[in-house]
Amino acid sequence: MIGRLNHVAVATKDVRKASAIYRDTLGAKVSEPVPLPEHGVTTVFVELPNTKIELLEPLGENSPIVKFLEKNPNGGMHHVCYEVDDIHAARDRMKAMGATVTGSGEPRIGAHGKPVIFLHPKDFAGTLIELEQA
Ligand code: CO
Fold first, then answer.
1. CA of 9 to the centre of ligand 1 (A)
2. 130 catalytic, yes or no?
3. Domain of 101?
4. E strands within the chain?
5. How far from 74 is each of 5, 13, 68, 102, CA to CA, in Å?
6. CA 44, CA 57: separation in Å to the nearest integer?
7. CATH classification at residue 31
8. Is the predicted pLDDT of residue 88 greater than 90, yes or no?
């Protein structure tokens, strides 16, 4: 069911510092920080030839990555995002398979303007998974 790896998201307390590491040390092409208040994060997009890395910094008090950074004060890999053809069909399949879809279970518009759902890490080898309708 899942297709291409769309992105890997890395949470950090300082997105400018993390961005500099990717740009200067690793030599990658990085965007300017993009505040996404509706998602509670400021994001830098790192463009690689075959996928993207998203650097996430908390934005606002209800940021979804605050708890993760409390547990991982140095930051770390937050989630992976796989592409699917049909987000509703994917959601229904995940529920039928007994997986936990986070939040309301309804797809919502993600950071790329496309519908996404998130799957709880307890069902996926400890990794938070985002499914995005490509
Ligand atoms: Co994501």
1. 6
2. yes
3. 5-133
4. 5-11, 29-30, 34-36, 41-47, 52-58, 76-84, 108-109, 115-119, 128-133
5. 25, 8, 10, 25
6. 9
7. 3.10.180.10
8. yes
